[in-house]
Amino acid sequence: MWLRMSRRRKRSLFARFAGIFGVIVVLFLGGIAAVAYLFTRAFGGEGSTAVGVWVAGLGLAFAMPALAGRLASRAFQDIATPLADVMEAADRVAAGDLSARVSREGPGDFGRLARSFNRMTEELQRTDLQRRNLTADVAHELRTPLQIIQGNLEGILDDVYEPTDEHIRTTLDETRLLARLVEDLQTLSLAEAGELPLMREPVDVSELLADVGTSFSGQAEAAGIELRVEVGNALPTVTGDVARLEQVLGNLLANALRHTPEGGHITVRGDSADGGIRITVRDTGEGIPAEDLPHVFDRFWRGDRSRSRAGGAGSGLGLAIARHLVHAHGGWIDVESEVSLGTTFTIDLPIGESPAADS
After folding, report:
1. What is the DSSP letter of 336?
2. What would the DSSP string read from start to end of 150-180?
3. From first to last of its 359 residues, what are the pLDDT tens digits of the chain?
């Protein structure tokens, strides 16, 4: 269907170009012939001379349609064909086919138009795929806690379970997981849209790291993991949202605690670097395979896909949120890891206040 429509559109455009060029050439040369005849008569030329000039003008007028056709064919190749291709691809995108591309890009303005169109459709296709994946991921993440809550409540109503503190506590824990997931989704949505409000103020990085270390010291001790907080000398003050920066470090530390075995250690360190602040969170955990590293900051990504949330896995949004929050502070976050040796997350923050940025 699209092929037939494209051929009809190209034939129609060619006919229009040929007709317009033909009419312009005939009118132009006809006018030249008439003017030549009048000038010849006005300046005393013989009648036969005037007639000769007029006939020659008419001959050129009849010969020029061939040239007009040639020009129309060239214009068709350079303008009409790429324009028809763009129109065809646009029709396919409007019909819902986001895989449509302009096959002939070529040089010049129409080539740039074709390349811009292809980039636009690629971005639309990528965004649509992300939307579909997000919908599927959210449905998957909500299913498990909802099934547990429903099962527990139905069991209590059917007298299968006694309404003990244990069953009620289990149900309450699942509702908290749902609330945390919804909150994380809202935070991530606002951060991706660049609409997450930040309460910017001077931040003492030494105090920030000390507070985060104190918050996680109990969990680390209970897990048999040594948590170290190291601070370089005379760290400059950064401008940022203390609560959001604590959220970033909290997500990284929670992730490190989940993947570091008993007897391991986690080190949080702050240093001055390249006119800014560099914060590293290094663990001696299981590490991340090289093929998984590009996906670490993706939504709902988990290194151990066989691990359920009940077994200690997070919602899969913590690292994605951390990346967007760091970018919102004008900074950058990266990860390095080796299997069985551990993982290091590095955060670079500017000293001065920077406008929110996102990638």
Report:
1. E
2. HHHHHHHHTTSS---HHHHHHHHHHHHHHHH
3. 545 555 565 566 556 666 666 666 666 666 666 666 665 555 555 555 555 555 555 565 556 556 655 665 665 556 666 777 777 788 888 888 888 888 766 666 777 888 888 888 888 888 788 777 777 777 777 787 888 888 888 888 888 878 888 878 888 888 888 888 888 888 888 887 778 888 999 999 999 999 999 999 999 999 999 999 999 887 888 999 999 999 999 999 999 999 999 999 999 999 998 778 999 999 999 899 999 898 888 877 665 544 444 444 556 788 988 999 999 999 999 999 999 899 999 999 998 655 444 44
d(CA 336, CA 324): 18
Q: Whole-structure pTM over 0.90, yes or no?
A: no
In whole angstroms, what is the distance from residue 43 CA to residue 130 CA?
79
Tokens in use for 116?
Answer: 């811009």
Between the CA atoms of 298, 303, 308 and 311, what dihedral angle is there, to the nearest 10 degrees? -120
Residue 94 burial (10 A CB sphere; 0-12, 13-18, 19+): exposed
- Which structure tokens are listed for 168? 């009620």
- Tokens coding 158: 């059917």
CB 270: neighbour CB atoms within 10 A? 21
Choosing among 3.30.565.10, 3.40.50.720, 3.90.78.10, 3.40.50.1370, the CATH entry for 201-350 is 3.30.565.10
Task: Give pairs for 66-75: CB < 8 Å, separation 24+.
Answer: 67/25, 68/18, 68/21, 68/22, 68/24, 68/25, 69/18, 69/21, 69/22, 71/21, 72/14, 72/17, 72/18, 72/20, 72/21, 72/22, 73/14, 73/18, 75/17, 75/21
Pairing of strands 226-231, 265-273: parallel
Cα within 13 Å of Cα(233), Cβ side: 0
